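Quick one: C-alpha cells for this chain, please?
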Amino acid sequence: MKIICIYNPQASGGKSTKHLSTVKDLFAKYNIESKFYFTKHPHHATEIIKELDLSKYDALVAAGGDGSFFDVLNGYMKYHSDIKIPLGLIPVGTGNSLSKDITNNTPNLEQFVKIIALKKPKSFDIGKVTSTQKTFYFANMTGFGFTTDVTLTALKYKLFGSFAYTIGVLINTLRLKTYPLKMIIDGKESKMDNTFITVSNSKYAGGNFLMAPKAKINDGKIDIIILNKISRWQLLKTFPKIFDGSYIESPYVQYIQAKSVRFEAKHEKIVSPDGEICGELPIDIECVPAAIQILVDKDI
C-alpha cells in the first residue's frame, strides 16, 4: 500500500511531533509505503495537495486534529475530487472529534494505522458552506455564535488537549449573549433569539462532546442543533449532558435534520468549521452525499 501523509507538526500545540517516529514505525510494521509532507502554516496542506499527483497513491492521510483534516479535505475537494482515492486519519491533534466516528473501539495510534492498512473505504457525506467570501467543506461540524466563541478561546488553551474546549465553554458562559437570527431550512423560514448554531455531519465535536447523537456519516443529511435564549445557570446545568448527548432533550435545544439550511444575521457572526475560523454570515450549508471515501474500522 502506498500513501501520502500530510503531517501537522503544530497540531495539539506542537505535541504531535512526539508521535512522528511512532507513526513512521507503525507504517513500516504494516507494510505501508508512506511519503510525508509537513505543514508549515495554517492551510499549507491545501497548497501541498494542489501540487500532488494523487493517482499514484492508494490513500491520502491527514495526521493532526480536526483542523488538519479540514485543510486536507478542502485541498482534495478543490483540486482532486475527480480522483477517487480514500482519505485516512491519524489523530494527533487537540480534539480529534472526527476520529471517534471512524472507529468503534477506544483506539490508540496503532488502531488507526491498522484501519489504513485494512483498506476498507466507506462513503462519507460532507458539508458544503457557501458565503459571500468563499466556499469550503467540512467533515465534522460548523457553527457560530457561542460555538465560535468557545473555539476562539480553546485555541488559546491547546496545551490542555480536548479539555481546552471545556475551558472555552466555562469562560464564554460568563460572557453569554444572544442575537436575532433568520434561518431557512429546506425552504422554510423562521426567526429566533439565538445563542448558538451547530451544523454537524458527524456525532462528536470539541473532542468528547456528543454534539449530534443522531448523526450518521452517510445518511445524506446535516444535523442542525439550535440553542435559543438561555440563562447562564441553565447553560451550566445543561452543559454536562453534552458528553452523552442527552442535552438535546433540553427545552432550550432544537434538533433538526435537513438537506440544506441558510443563516442570516444583522450582527457579524464568524463561522468555525472543524475547529477552524473561516467565513462569516450569511451562509448557505448543504449536505453533499457520498462526496468522499474515508478509511474506517472494519466494524463501522
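The chain has two domains: 2-124, 131-290.
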